[in-house]
Give the backbone structure.
Amino acid sequence: MRDFVHLHLHTEYSLLDGFCRIKETIEKAKNLGMKSVAITDYGNMYGCVDFYIEAKKQGVKPIIGCEVHIETRDRTKNNNLILLCENMKGYKNLIKIVSYGYTENYFDKPRVKKSILEKYSEGLICISPSLKGEIGRFLLEDRYDTASETVEYYKNIYGNNSFFLELQNHSLSEQKKINPILIELSKQFDVPLVATNDVHYLDKKDSAAHDVLLCIQDGKKLSDKKRLKLPNSEFYFKSAEEMYNLFREIPEAIENTTKIADRIDFDFDFSKHYIPKFSYDENFDAKKVLYENCIKGYRELYKTDENIKRLEYELNIIDKMGFNDYFLIVQDFIMFAKESGIYVGPGRGSGGASLAAYCLGITDIDPIKHKLHFERFLNPQRITMPDFDIDFEDERRGEVIEYVRKKYGKKHVANIITFGTLGARAAIRDVGRVLDVEHKKIDQMAKTIPASNRVSLSDSLEENERLRQLLNDNKLRRVFDIAVQIEGVPRHTSTHAAGIVVSSKEITEYVPLSIQDGNITTQYNKNLIEKLGLLKIDFLGLRNLTILKNTLNYIKENKNIDLSLSDIPLDDKKTFELLQRGDSLGVFQLEGHGLRSFLRELKPDKLEDIVAGTSLYRPGPMDSIGTYLKNKENPNGIKYISEKLEPILSPTYGCLVYQEQVMQIFRDLAGYSLAGADLVRRAMSKKDMAQMMREKEIFLNGNGDDIEGCLALGINKRDAENLYDSMSEFANYAFNKTHATGYALIAYQSAYLKANYPHEYMTALMSSVMGTSNKLSSYIRNLKSMGIQLLMPNINYSYSDFKIEGESIRFGLKAIKNVGSNIIHSIIEGRKYKKYDSLDDFLTRLSGTSMNKKAIESLIKSGSLDGLGETRKSMLERFESEMDAISRNRRTNAPGQISFFDEILDMTSSKKNSEEFDEKTLLDMEKEIFGMYLSSHPIEEFSEIIKSGRAMSLHEFIELGESEEGKKCSVLAMINSVKKKKTKKGSMMAFISVSDEINTVNVNVFPKVYEIYGGMLQPGNSFVLEGRLNIRHDGINTLNLDRLFAANKYLQRTEVKKLYVKVDNWEKEEIEELTKLLRKYRGENEVVVFESSKKIARKIKDIYVDICDELLKALYELYSEERIIVK
């Protein structure tokens, strides 16, 4: 068997160009008997670590490399170079080269200067690409002398044995021209040859899919003549035999591939950590300083030494694991944030389990009080990087990151990259565009695919009958087949929302860098950064912290009360009453409709209930909610298999909820250490069946050493087995109590402020979502239900954000469409000394600013100028001509001569129109500008329907409980949106969202009902919807629609009548014609056809009509009047 190694290969990380998926590439190499394979993506090292790990896993030797772009004067020419890492020095130099291209010399692609190649050449093997390199290009241009000089140049940089000339053979005329000359140059300059295939895809049949990828990258269609493409389908992963046959006359070019592979002596070291020093002063003792800082914090938090041993235990582990500096670094930037007035979260993730972190002020969670285990955060038996995920108020998170950059140096701090992949739907749409298939057809097919990237195209095909039907179309079948091939490949890069890496040396000593959105980022993702031992810290921006901070500021401003979060009592009656009512809209973690319903059942009366509630209300643990509620109501009825189990499970009323409880059970009932218990918990959560079986035996009988086992500690075998099986089943769902506690604390603080300072809290809350109309509208509805008046926006009183005004809240200008921050600033500045008193005055004072016609139109439509004594209709009719006149006058007057403005203030008073738009038009304007109805809601016109008792409000509907599921209900609401869908059988149905002044409900319109009422389902229409209560699995009430009645006619309904039509015989064609007519007049009245010949009355199925004059007239024309009866 011949030996050959592919040294020129583009994986999926040559974005939208390479199509060799890493796992499949290594499998291919292994199956073909190749002992080694290289990765050489264009300009980047994105895939190198994944490639290395997968190759090692499959027993193939990985070669790390890159095809870099060399800078020359002519950037339109190919000037590439392949660099392979021979050893660790080569890897570090390749990092420097690749990073330089991105961070210092990026022009449409990362380009490397030759001076950089010279500086970082050691440890690298260089291959000059056939047609894509300088030497090949010079030979194509018949510039033999220049090519010779270039050979000498690279030979001088890399030495006799580390510079190679590449030969390729894809049956191209250009290669046939230059290959003989390359062989001559090889002999002339004693430079070895190496054969490659420039692999872009694994199999020949993949070339079509690869061609499509190139089109996606280029924004072209397959039919475009001028587009990026490979010349033929020979750029696949060829076998050694195929490569030998291509180069049988130059066997040394094949042999050199294995010689290069044999020289490679490089491995990643995943065992080391590279945490930066907190201080590089040689006299600085991190261990001592950390101890002193912790003791100082401890003395401020605790009155006794009861927990000192726990603290010393933690500090000992932190020191042994080498994380003293890490804790000091985190403490330092958190102290900076707090001292700068930047709000910091109490702690998320497992970091809150550390007493040391609590004493340092890193977290605000007392792990002793909440019974949290340090080993859940830092396990001495499992050496991994500690991970503090820290929340900062979202508007000032960047200040903390900048502080870290300045303190440790910009070259030591970087953002972390993420990769966006080609999702199932996107793949369908992209391939459809490339193949130029009719957009309507592609849209139909794409809409059969779930939006979630978790559902693959193959899964969709298996589950979706409609999709299978569409694939009978050959064009769509081709689109689908190619989409399946390319689905999931990386499409683009971006910056991780929170992750920052901080390193002891310059980051380019460890990982390559790139630029994303103007930020310096690593080329490896967060998981690989941690695997390589670098310090990753998540700086998360949390909107809710900004809300809390602003609420406290408003309290000081409006009530002159200095309140801090630490002042908030954890046993406030009003807070728990609010939660028990389920009035938690806008409360962190507790605002979902299902959760609000759950809170009404849970009736929380302590913080622990909120911790447990948020942990239980998730898929999996949700099944335990019934038991939890029952046991909470009757705690005396809970039975424990051992008295040792009671203190562990009693806080959650006998239910297993937290990961920490699993750890405690292993410790207290079987004798494990907490560190050992955490390892078992991890195995359970990963469903490691082999380890779980081993551990079950130890759990029961001990290990003969340091673990005694349940039986030796007095637990019945059957009970112990059942307990272990319960933990095994639940461990995958059990929640991190530390994380839940931190977030429950923020939730409680939010609820406290909403309950005790509703004006201030709602002002801060609504200001935080001014760019999200759906959330804002729900909060405004909630505000109305709280009895707080919302004042319309007003140019004389509104500010950018919402503002408290007496006992009301004034709408903020920032929420008005087309009105930006500069315009708002101009409005506020313009009224400093005198309020605006007319449209002319307003336009005059703001002329010369960034104000524009679109913004003025939006301000008028929003009602912001209603206080100027002129109707919106009048202002909209004349503001443009007024602005033009003012602008002309400004241009014709010299600078400083502005008194003329006073003279034109009344110029257009005669043009004012005293008429106003009707109420519906005004409301529609508000909907256009705000994305919601503000001053009132169209449904209010039909409030008499609710008062009459003939229909319920959405609030009443939402309050219906489980015992009433299936109940027939009539609700008054307006349609917000309609989402139509085809069923697997091809029938149409719809999901509609309806609302009133305060609430929103989802309505299911199944095919039979849709057939009757589908044409009436238009957003903005108000109806009484009749149907049955359906409660979803998450506790949300929805309505299954049966019938629909127009709200404007509903109160005029008396006894529902039937329409009788008399025919001689039930002829199919005649009935079809009748049905066609009746469908034009949909309503609520049944239609009965009386067949006189047989004296049989039949109801026309699924047809209900509005018995109006127009329908009767049409029927009289079709039949004689005596044949039509209404009664």
The chain has 46 helices and 25 strands. The first strand starts at residue 36 and ends at 42.
